[in-house]
Design a protein that fits this description.
- Two copies of one chain form a homodimer.
- The first copy, chain A, is mainly β.
- In chain A, 10% of the residues lie in helices and 38% in strands.
- The first copy, chain A, contains ten helices and 33 strands.
- The first copy, chain A, has a 19-stranded antiparallel β-sheet that branches. The first copy, chain A, has a five-stranded antiparallel β-sheet with strand order 1-6-7-8-9, with helices on one face. Chain A has a four-stranded antiparallel β-sheet with strand order 2-3-4-5, covered by helices on one side.
- Chain A is globular, with a radius of gyration of 27 Å.
- The model of chain A is unreliable at 1-54 (pLDDT under 50).
- Chains A and B meet through strand 1, helix 1, helix 3, helix 6 and strand 10 of A and strand 1, helix 1, helix 3, helix 6 and strand 10 of B.
- Strand 10 of chain A pairs antiparallel with strand 10 of chain B.
Chain lengths: 718, 718
């Protein structure tokens, strides 16, 4: 979700000082920054977080890269700042650094690299803003110089920075009209918490400057200010000129919804839930986890090896995922790189205060920068390992996202395969194998919404990519307290979910970049269509059957897929040069599950910008610059640099290095159960081996035996 | 899957004796019956099963019913036999009892019943066969007489009995032509294991008698005989006349696939899998589970109370599922009855030996009768409770399915809701709640395929119904050992999954009967359609949006739903007489996830019989006789008693007692990984509260705290 919020305090200067502290804090007290700061008028105890077992992040000051894909270290981040400070175009004016990340070496180099080899020259990929211009740079860290520099390569701007957000809120709060509008409603500015929805892009009028919207909520009596919108108040702020360019107040007369029942913090609850308590339950591994994390980023577990890293924009990146062949023991490539490339969230309300809410959360805000520390025992189980993110603030200083990713073995009580024979048969067989998987997880809190990303690895070769949604609804104030008060002629844009609160209908689309390399980079995308065939007269008592027919996608045009229940297909990525012993091409298939499609008009500006959601599956020719489905510069972009545009080139994709893009969708019609915090909703898709292994790779997996399981007692506190 | 198998032994009489023992065993040695019997030539050790901690079933001789929906007890089953033995039409000839189950009291009576009330007169519902006629009887156990008796109410026959299956195999094996065909292939009858696919119904020629197909496999060198088809040999057996009515041998020249790599039992593996071992991991609840099972069948957990019972045909039945209101604490009705009503599995091969493989596993074989004991620690986690099934064999004697259902609390390391605030905000919030659910599970091994049914209850009110598939493929012999040997002109009906083995393409459709009673029996089905609307010129910078539009289904015609990705809807079951404080009708929605539709021609005989799969959702008026989507007598039925026929009556369903039917589908194009045993594949759908609760019912749920969690050590065996 969808809006970065910032809070107005009476002592605004104090807040700003804190914010500067946030941007510049020292690594040795990183772990404190989230837990000590100004007193809130609404008291927030952090003891519960600490009780949950906060994992103190490591000191990353002396981290060194050991793999070509390792993220920039603290020292490298500092070097970027040094290089850019003495870079001639920036000598007089240091730009705001909106993104600083590893400029990954070319894929062929990475593929040729092996442990123990020297690293390739390390480079940083920087997106900066200066005087309203977007600068895209590559900084050679070994040579200590800018190796490449492009200005305004496409429309749009880089991700907004935390500084932008606080600037926008500050500008809005010092705007006289906001003060008047608040006073007219009997609200004081000090009670407002303001959020910063991105403006989208709605025509040439929005071309000339970097703008952001500001809307405010009443935080009186609750930390869940999201449920108390001051409806109809919208400021449009020019971020760079630091001025309000538009102000609308159409909401006078719409009451601010009350605070009752909005509070969700555990320590603020005054009652027990209406249910019997659940006895303590835990995933226990007294001998410890079975995976290792080597050199900070190489994860090894069961038959899997992959590189895992935090990313400021994508949140979490899986690289070089390889699985051990069940026959030869050889490590074989499955996925060169996989990550959430963009997240599109259009709200369905044409109102002047709502039409622009069509977020692209990865490109506009960043999924990594908003991925807060996971809560041990509740976000992730007890047997988790945590990984920190090392990111960069807009002044070029690094900061930590501690405990940003957790990694754990999941055992949910399920089987990975099983078979019984009925007793009348001579073979009295009861065979079952418990399923244990490995999960890498992060949770981005993009304002109100929380997105939990899971990459789950199974020993049978399957990778499940799951997105779960929780957090707060983006709600709309309404005069109505009851459905019966809504006039028949009034077209609401969502259901009443509390008194004076409309839960506006919206969608979520998460587009994944899946650079599949089945054994080798050159792969082919094959649609295996199940076609109904009629039998010919006399052939069979059966009149019809389904037959699997393979269609090789020769070009990008052939690989734009809309899923159809009544015209079903499987979607295989095969290596045409590598075959199983039986002659089947080795491959993986993309297996959709529950999903939703974007139904917006293709000419609607948000859909043009998010045209990457026009299909559920696309396949493109690999191009190292085509990483972000909504464009490198997604903020206020016009859609000139999206996946849909790249695909239009209709490149050859047969037996080429290809990238698969899968979009997972959700329609969300809110209901009262989503108030004041939403029960988690999940959906997923799978990457599943298909003739990749010669046979079931877990045929020989051992069952669980009682003798191996732990002996547990209630903890000493009982 | 789809075929009940039986094994030919040299000493066939010995086998038959054992089978009779199975049908008549004494409860006190039930736990042994699965583990002591004839020696197999292929040695099978059962020690591993025992090591896993086999849960000895209880003695059920003295069970008494304590709830109107409790299944028949041993004493009641014995009484049924006594009553029918002295029932005049059966005096000279006792019929074969194909199904004996509780004849449930009328719904209004059950709804009026409360704990402590006397039970209503107990009745048994019996389906029997005598002289080729299907007898449907109700036996009043209190009065000790037959209360109702109908002969041949529809086309079709009752589920086949285990006696039928062994009869069919015996008849086939004593058929001279089979002996000749086997000898011609160099196979001895004693090496054959024969299975009994149901014949479907393919026209008037199959009306006059009860038939079954018999096909054989070579069990030489493997317990996984399913991977060694003797292709092209099919016998059609008249079960009642005990004679072969048709014999085809079209497969000479097709080699029997080899046994290599087909064995899946753990003790038969000679190698470790190619992966690092996984450390012991377990779901631990040292204070025990949080649920109770009262009076054998009433499950109470967290905010849920429901009745759970095994069923010979449906496998597992959930009744009277009620959830506690999060405001009032009152127990509120959600579901009167839910179960798997039918399971349709059409194979896609018109071949003379394959066309009929279009199984309806519940109605033809029974999901309960084929639900073998679950394997502790591997089918279900360590913290499981097990429930036995008390069923009836065709001679009227009862028998136990021990450990047929497991019930456990699942904790998979996930959260049930969460929210974080970014640090620049004054509210430094990290709130997350771990998700613990309750799962009821059974696994039916209908011949080769294993179907795992999970009913998962969440504290937020959601019920997830999941079906998982594992077991063995039904494979076809082929002369080809390699894809390159397959002539371009040859249309195979599936991929080569091993040398000489084709994995024939097939579908699975599981149709659930969901008698929703949201607070009260009278409910309304509402389709909430998301419709694309264009804005009018000048209204908004946005051109389009989605608006939720509700359509009340007035009659059954209005409630036949084909899911459409590009015309999406939610499917609500609401109580029009009960509204939330805001005026929203209280309801639950059916939430599909990944699924598949049947694409067969509606006039194809199997699709006519399985016309209940013509839509993904149907809603019918409640009728106590409409339980089985494929008809009460599904075996060789013509489709005259299916859900599709009932729905054609187009009854009023608005504000009436209604039943929702949901069909979960799978297309399966096999691959080499499915050989020799299939990694589990799952799909699910949800029943989810929508304005049923006034707000998030788990808002007040406590997080997990470290102090509450167990202290565990590796077991003593380390």
């Amino acid at each position: 979700m969808e809006a970065i919020s910032s809070t107005l305090r009476c002592a605004f200067i104090f807040f700003t000082a804190l914010f500067l502290l946030f941007l510049s804090w020292h690594p040795l007290n990183n772990s404190d920054i989230f837990y000590t700061s100004s007193k809130n008028r609404i008291r927030t105890k952090f003891s519960s977080v600490l009780e949950h077992g906060f994992h103190k992040p490591k000191n990353h000051l002396k981290d060194n890269p050991s793999h070509p894909l390792d993220p920039l270290t603290v020292q490298e981040i500092n070097k970027v700042r040094t290089v850019l400070s003495s870079y001639e175009p920036f000598l007089s004016n240091f730009p705001a650094l909106h993104s600083v990340s590893l400029d990954e070496p070319d894929k062929d180099k990475v593929l040729s690299w092996g442990k123990g080899h020297p690293l390739f020259p390390r480079k940083a990929f920087v997106i900066a803003l200066l005087n309203g211009q977007s600068h895209v740079l590559s900084v050679d860290l070994d040579l200590g110089r800018v190796a490449n520099h492009i200005i305004n390569p496409t429309s749009g701007y880089p991700m907004v920075s935390m500084t932008d957000l606080s600037t926008a809120v500050r500008v809005a709060l010092s705007h006289q009209q906001l003060n008047i509008s608040a006073a007219r409603r009997g609200l004081s500015l000090s009670e407002l918490t303001c959020v910063t929805p991105s403006p989208g892009w709605y025509g040439p009028g929005e071309d000339v400057r970097r703008i952001i919207k500001v809307q405010c909520f009443l935080s009186r009596g609750t930390t869940n200010y999201y449920m108390r919108p001051v409806e109809g108040l919208t400021l449009t702020v020019d971020i760079d000129k630091k001025e309000v360019v538009n102000f609308t107040d159409t909401g006078f007369g719409i009451p601010v919804p009350r605070a009752t029942y909005t509070e969700y913090r555990y320590e603020a609850q005054d009652k027990q839930p209406e249910m019997e308590p659940i006895n303590p339950i835990s995933l226990e591994q007294p001998k410890g986890p079975s995976f290792t994390v080597e050199d900070g980023h190489i994860v090894k577990w069961a038959n899997w090896v992959f590189h895992l890293k935090p990313d400021q924009r994508a949140g979490m990146v899986i690289s070089r995922a390889t699985v051990r062949d069940s026959e030869t023991g050889e490590l074989r490539s499955v996925l060169y790189k996989g990550f959430a490339s963009e997240l599109f969230v259009p709200y369905m309300d044409p109102d002047e205060n709502w039409y622009f809410k069509t977020y692209m959360d990865a490109g506009e805000y960043g999924l990594g920068i908003t991925a807060m520390p996971l809560v041990p025992l509740n976000d992730c189980p007890r047997n988790s390992y945590y990984m920190d993110g090392t990111f960069v603030s807009s002044d070029g200083k690094y900061f930590l996202q501690p405990n940003m990713i957790c990694l754990f073995e999941r055992y949910a009580g399920d089987a990975s395969w099983r078979h019984s024979e009925i007793p009348v048969i001579g073979f009295k067989i009861r065979e079952a194998r418990a399923k244990v998987t490995l999960v890498a997880r992060m949770a981005a809190s993009v304002g109100n919404y929380d997105y939990i990303f899971d990459w789950e690895f199974q020993t049978d070769g399957l990778i499940r990519i799951k997105v779960s949604l929780s957090g707060m609804l983006m709600v709309k104030g309404t005069p109505h307290e009851h459905v019966y008060q809504i006039p028949y002629t009034e077209k609401t844009t969502g259901p009443l979910v509390s008194e004076n609160v409309i839960g506006v209908v919206h969608d979520h689309f998460i587009t994944f970049h899946l650079d599949m390399d089945i054994d080798e980079p050159n792969n082919t995308f094959v649609k295996v269509n199940l076609v109904k065939e009629e039998t010919f007269p006399g052939e069979s008592p059966r009149k019809s059957l389904l037959r699997a027919k393979s269609h090789v996608a020769k070009t990008e045009d052939d690989a734009r897929i809309k899923l159809k229940l009544y015209d079903p297909s499987e979607f295989h990525v095969i290596n045409p040069s590598k075959r199983s012993r039986l002659g089947n091409p080795t491959g993986y298939k993309v297996v959709p599950s529950g999903t939703a499609a974007s139904l917006l008009d293709h000419l609607d500006p948000p859909q043009t910008r998010a045209a990457f959601t026009n299909n559920q599956i696309w396949v493109t020719r690999y191009n190292r610059t085509e990483q972000w489905a909504g464009g490198l510069l997604a903020y206020q972009s016009k859609g000139d640099d999206t996946l849909a545009v790249w695909s239009r080139r209709n490149r050859d994709i047969e037996n080429k290095d290809i990238v698969v893009w899968y979009t997972l969708g959700f329609h969300h019609i809110p209901c009262q159960e989503d108030f004041p915090v939403m029960p988690m909703v999940s959906s997923s898709f799978d990457l599943k081996p298909v003739n990749f292994f010669e046979r079931n790779p877990i045929l020989r997996a051992p069952p669980m035996f009682e003798k191996d399981l732990p002996v547990c007692q209630p903890s000493a506190s009982f």
